[in-house]
Design goal:
Length: 292
C-alpha cells in the first residue's frame, strides 16, 4: 500500500526548504562568486570560471598578511578546543557529585551566553588593561627599570583573546558534558572497580571510550566557535588580528572576488573540522561495538 502524506506535510516541507535556502544561500553565493575569472566582479552574472582569485589570495591582499592571520586563528582555535575539552570533561566529572555552590557556579558560567559579546570583549579588555597598570606600578616600585621598558601589554592572542573565546565555548561544552553524564550508567564504573581497576584505569578504559563521541563533539564546537569569532575578539586581541578580524577589515578595502575566495577558504576549514569530528565519532562507535 502507498502511504499518503498528511495534509500538512507539503506546507511544512516548503517552509523547511525556504529555511535551508535562507541559511545556506548566502554561503553558496560567496563560494560560486569566488570562482570567477580575472574580469569578475562582486555580483552576478559570472564572468568566466577560474582559480584566479585564489591565486591572488595566496599572493596576499595589500598589506594584510593572510597567511599569518590564518596561522594565528588556527593556533588559537586549537588551544581553545583543547582547553574546552579538558575543562568540560573535568567539570562534568565534578558535577556528578553534589558540590557546595555548584548551582551558582553553573549559572555564572552559562550567563556568558546571554551577555552581549561586545560587552564581554570590552570587559576582558578593560580587565587586562588594569592588570597592565598594576604590573607596571609593581615593576616601578621594585625598581625593575629594564623590565618596565621592555613591557608592552598582557593583551595578546594566548592571554586575553584566549580567555574571551573560552567565555563563548565553555558553556556549550559544559552543557553537552552535563547532558552526557546525566545519562551515564555508573554500573560500568562499579564493575570495573570490582575487577580491581584503579580510578584512572576506570576513566581511561571505561568512561572515556563511552563518552568519546561526545568529547569529540565538544572539541568540534570549541574549534568552530573560536574559528569565526569576531565580537569577543575585537577588544581583547591586542596588537594582532585573527583571520575573521582581518576579513572584516578587508570588506571595506578589497573590492574584488578575492574577498570571496578568502571566505570560501575559511568555510572549507570549518567544514573540514566538522567532517573530521563526525568521522572520529563514527570510528569510536564502531570500535566500541567491536570490543563489546
Amino acid at each position: 500500500m502507498i502511504r499518503r502524506r498528511a495534509p500538512g506535510f507539503w506546507p511544512l516541507a516548503l517552509v523547511f526548504a525556504l529555511f535551508v535556502a535562507f541559511l545556506y544561500g548566502p554561503m553558496l553565493t560567496i563560494v560560486v562568486l569566488s570562482f570567477q575569472g580575472p574580469e569578475g566582479g562582486l555580483t552576478f552574472p559570472l564572468r568566466g570560471v577560474s582559480l584566479h582569485w585564489f591565486a591572488q589570495l595566496a599572493q596576499g591582499l595589500g598589506t594584510v598578511d593572510i597567511g599569518a592571520a590564518f596561522l594565528r586563528s588556527l593556533g588559537l582555535g586549537a588551544m581553545v578546543m583543547a582547553l574546552t575539552v579538558l575543562l568540560s570533561v573535568l567539570a562534568g566529572l565534578a558535577f556528578r557529585k553534589r558540590l557546595r555552590g555548584g548551582q551558582v557556579l553553573f549559572f555564572v558560567t552559562v550567563a556568558s551566553l546571554i551577555m552581549p559579546s561586545i560587552v564581554v570583549s570590552l570587559g576582558i579588555g578593560l580587565q587586562f588593561r588594569l592588570l597592565d597598570d598594576g604590573l607596571k606600578a609593581l615593576l616601578a616600585w621594585c625598581g625593575a627599570d629594564a623590565l618596565l621598558e621592555g613591557y608592552g601589554s598582557s593583551l595578546g592572542l594566548m592571554t586575553s583573546a584566549l580567555g574571551a573565546h573560552l567565555t563563548w565555548t565553555l558553556p556549550f561544552g559544559l552543557l553537552i558534558m552535563f547532558a552526557v553524564f546525566n545519562r551515564f550508567n555508573p554500573a560500568y564504573e562499579e564493575a570495573a572497580r570490582d575487577l580491581g581497576a584503579t580510578p584512572w584505569q576506570t576513566f581511561r578504559h571505561v568512561v572515556l571510550p563511552l563518552i568519546g563521541p561526545s568529547v569529540v563533539g565538544v572539541g568540534m564546537f570549541g574549534f568552530t566557535l573560536s574559528w569565526d569569532e569576531i565580537a569577543r575578539t575585537s577588544q581583547a586581541i591586542g596588537d594582532v588580528n585573527t583571520l575573521p578580524l582581518e576579513l572584516q577589515g578587508l570588506t571595506a578595502t578589497v573590492t574584488t572576488p578575492a574577498i570571496y575566495a578568502l571566505g570560501t577558504v575559511t568555510t572549507v576549514v570549518s567544514f573540514a573540522v566538522m567532517g573530521l569530528a563526525v568521522a572520529a565519532a563514527a570510528w569510536m562507535k564502531r570500535r566500541r561495538r567491536k570490543e563489546v
